[in-house]
Amino acid sequence: MTTEPTIMAGQGTYSTVSVRGIGFAPSKRSIISNTVSLQEKLQLEPRFMNDPFLREAQKRWDKIYFDQTYTRESNGTCKRDAKVDHIGDHIAKLLKKVHRAQADEDNYNAFANLTEEAVGDAAIYRTQLANTLGFNLKSRLGHVKTTSSDLSEAKDLLIVALPQDYTEPHEHRSARSSSLRSEVRNVGIPAMHMAHLILTNYCEVDPFMSHLERLADKPGIANVN
Question: What predicted TM-score, i.e. pTM, was given to this entire model?
Answer without folding.
Answer: 0.78
